[in-house]
Amino acid sequence: MNSVTFASASRISSKSTDLPRATSQMRASRLAGAIAAYLGLGVALVIVGIPTYWVIIGALKTNREIYTVPSTWWPPNPAWSNFPAAWAAAPFTRMYLNSIAVTFVSTTLKLVNATFCAYAFAYLQIPGRNLIFMFILGALMIPEEVTVLPNYLTVASLGYVNSITGLILPTIGSAFGSRGHDHRDRAHHCPLHRGATASGRGNCFRCRQGVTATATRRAGVVPRKQEGNASMNLRTRRGALSAAGLFGTGLALAACGGDGASGGAAAPAASSGPVKLVYWGAFAANLGKVQEEVVKQFNDSQKAVTVEHQFQGSYEELANKLTAALQAKQAPDMAVLSDVWWYKFYLNKAIQPMDDLMKAEKVDTKDYVDSLFNEYVQAGKSYALPFARSTPLFYYNKDAYKKAGLPDRAPKTWDEFVKDFAPKLKGAIDPKQFVFANGGYSAWIFQGVIWQFGGAYSDKDFKMTIGEPKGVQAGEFYRDSIKAGWSQSVKNDTDEFKQMNAVNIINSTGSLVGILDAAKGKFEVGTGFLPEGPAGFGCPTGGAGVAILSGLAKEKQAASMQYIAFATSPKVQASWSQQTGYMPVRKTAIDSKEMQDFVKTNPNFKTALDQLPKTKFQDSARVFVPNGDQILAKGLERILVNQEAPSTVFKEVAETLTKEAEPVIKARKALGA
């Protein structure tokens, strides 16, 4: 007995000793696992967190600090003003409200439509139901990207472009949520419904009605006659739901297919009221307000024509939308077309000659500035009239020039700027500022520079000359400006100048009013001619004209010409120029007392007028070759940002431009241009 007790005690003692040891090992193992897990999470946090942190601090830096090497992990003076500036750069409040409205309405309508479809497929014996259902299932396989253009053409044909209705309509007919067969199939697995579905009684709802009616009749609550009436009412309701379901199904199929462009929109009924015109514009902010005012003045000046102005975004965005609208046969009556886009529509016969219309409207074509008017003349006919025309100007910060001890004027030559102005400015300005910002319409600005060095993008016959020695020399000058540290490549040089990050820029006359408004109370702005290069002066014209789209009824053609004559009249042009900075396109507007008095008190506006006689039309490579502007701009980006050799870059650019010019040359020959 004692030996057994001793053995038992020994085993208990041994287990008592092993238990703490096992517990300690388990704790150590868990601790090691936890440490490994936290280390893994820490590494993952670093991998994910550093880019996130970099994005956040990037939002608090100036553009100069973003491009500074080596980068800083925290800006010395966080630019909190970036956030309100970014919010003000676009109508974000309106965008959010639009998104909420579109989401709520489209989701609600989609649910209603899908519910009708699902009920019809699950519970109603519709002829051809399986075939229709297969079509809807097939619609689920179509990638969303495939439906973008057909949906746009459909919306355009209905006249809902640039509207909330146009955003909602394509989303209503959704195949998702309409799979009613799933509900019907589930009925076969429910014991309560097997008999009903097998006997053809149809569905859960009808089965429940049958069971309830039988039970109540047996209880003496509902007479057989009333049961028949209830069944008839049920069939009536189901008939209505069947029609609604078929309507929803048809709507879904219509939204999933068909481009809506083959027939075009129905022609509006003839009206004895004013002729209504749609005019597409590309001016935002202050320019857009002034454009709206011009349209309002025209509408108020007479009762025969009413113009509706529709903003379409930038020049490029407008051109892309116009291309799509022409395909959908929903083009506007008039459109603003920039220097690099109007020619594309001329080659495609999308804009019409205006000579007869100008004659009928008694437009004095000789009063237009010759160089600007002649840019739109092809084969002896005018295809647009100049409206918002510009040239590049040299903008400088007068306060910074004064601080650096420089004269109050723009540099006369690039040599003077590089050897005298830039070093003095660099020693006087804040280290976060840069002497010169290069950005915006880079191929337009470089057009003047390459002329100043004796080169060109191309000749008038589309021979690409950008890769020749003079052009390469201009490219080397651009690349060296970055290396030497007096120039900085930025996305938007105008904003950099307004925010006092850049002391000098070259930008459009059309930016003048916006720059002056932004500089009020901060610094004084000066303007001057573009600096001369080794080959002398060079400055291109730019901006946009107004064209009339082809295929309009005669009354709309005449009405369009009436508006364009008004918008380009001397009085309107003088006012337009003073409010925007664009050059007046009429000689009498330039010489008018109103304009002369204005430039005396606003000398910055006089710079463009004085420089205008020295400007010339741009090379064919940029304005006539499709996407020529973008091809040139990408080449310049490679030189400025990537610091690639101009000789290599320009050779490749010339080859690309030559290839892109081939269809243009053929089209010109066909048109006799």
Please summarize what this structure is.
The chain has 30 helices and twelve strands.
How are the secondary structure elements laid out?
Blueprint: H1 2-58, H2 63-67, H3 82-88, H4 92-123, H5 129-140, H6 144-157, H7 164-172, H8 181-187, H9 191-198, H10 204-218, H11 224-256, E1 275-281, H12 285-301, E2 305-311, H13 315-327, E3 334-338, H14 342-347, H15 355-360, H16 370-374, E4 377-378, E5 381-382, E6 385-390, E7 392-397, H17 398-403, H18 414-428, E8 434-438, H19 442-452, H20 469-483, E9 487-489, H21 493-498, E10 502-508, H22 512-519, E11 525-528, E12 542-548, H23 554-567, H24 570-580, H25 587-591, H26 593-601, H27 603-611, H28 620-623, H29 628-640, H30 646-671
Parallel strand pairs: 1-2, 1-3, 8-9, 8-10
Antiparallel strand pairs: 3-12, 4-5, 6-12, 7-10, 7-11
Helix pairs in contact: 4-7, 4-8, 4-11, 5-11, 7-11, 10-11, 12-24, 19-20, 26-27, 29-30
Give a description of the structure.
The protein has 673 residues and is α/β, with parallel strands linked by helices. It contains 30 helices and 12 strands. A hairpin with a 2-residue loop joins strand 4 and strand 5.
